[in-house]
């Protein structure tokens, strides 16, 4: 083990909670115990209450003595056990974070979250170096949006994708039982990975050419055109008397303006200035109204149109992907080993070793990447994952299927 500072460690959780974020929390604790606690380098492990928002106010849990049975139970519990925050720290805020580290003799700082959390780690680490304070800062990835640039996929995404796939499987059967037009609005402000997972609801034995829903999938990466949308829905509805649709909450027009944000003027915004799309059914309702107005025959009745916004229920559904469970725990442990081997800072990246083609065994590993490579950057669906204006490709299905775990095989008459 290289020379490392002696002191305490602190762990925080930030951003939207997931079904497996506590697996990462427990993974960091286990990794510290096996490494730096065992050598006497880390004396105590603290947990931030509601991330840095609580840390700067000295709101801490002592996690040092928690027994393994409780940790295993905690790891299997969805949502952020320590509490989370949407605060986006700037320079002065991070000065307060560094001051809190000094007050509690924290030498190891772990933050579990998305790209803004990695940016917090970057700023705090740079400040510590500039002031000569010995501090190690590590970012543990987490996000259901799957939009961290260095990860093959992010802990939290496989479980949320599993929920979306299973919800759409059930909802499609509902749609063919009582035909009509059904719109499901799914999380994803800038990246369409979670909405794309709705395609996993289609029958696996008939992926190519399957007419299973959702028949139409709209992503933020493809400019949304209302006339095209109406025409595509009309074509399917005319043939089948029903249509099943998945729409990302972040769909944008050709100018790059979010369709949902234009419909929710004056809505509540988060710390980043973003209109909170997942808390409103406005997008689904507005798209439904457009279809009713445009598809009602002269003198006839409007089509039966319903819209659901999946919202926050996608994040913490207590049926996680088994792959996600293992990888989230391993990501936390790996972050702890980075400090033990003498790294000053870094972000953990999930690396796919194999498992991108049908029949290939899925294997993953982890790597350290520079915080600056992750911080405040957003990954989008690559072009090879998108098929036209309203579908995903076979390449996406091969990418996503190994991640979500076994899906139900449902009978059909």
Lay out the secondary structure.
Layout: E1 7-13, H1 21-37, E2 42-48, H2 51-55, E3 60-62, H3 68-75, H4 91-103, E4 106-113, H5 115-131, E5 136-141, H6 157-177, E6 181-186, H7 193-196, E7 216-218, H8 226-240, E8 243-248, H9 259-263, H10 282-295, E9 305-309, H11 322-340, E10 345-354, E11 363-369, H12 371-374, H13 394-404
Helix pairs in contact: 1-3, 1-11, 4-5, 8-10
Structural write-up:
The strands form 2 sheets. The protein has a 7-stranded mixed sheet, with helices on both faces. It has a 4-stranded parallel sheet with strand order 7-8-6-9, sandwiched between helices. α1 packs antiparallel against α3 (68-75). It folds into 2 domains: 7-144 and 319-374, Rossmann fold (3-Layer(aba) Sandwich); 161-314 and 383-404, Phosphofructokinase domain (Rossmann fold). By secondary structure, the chain is of the alpha/beta class. Helix content is 37%, strand content 16%. The chain has helices at residues 21-37, 51-55, 68-75, 91-103, 115-131, 157-177, 193-196, 226-240, 259-263, 282-295, 322-340, 371-374, 394-404, and strands at residues 7-13, 42-48, 60-62, 106-113, 136-141, 181-186, 216-218, 243-248, 305-309, 345-354, 363-369.
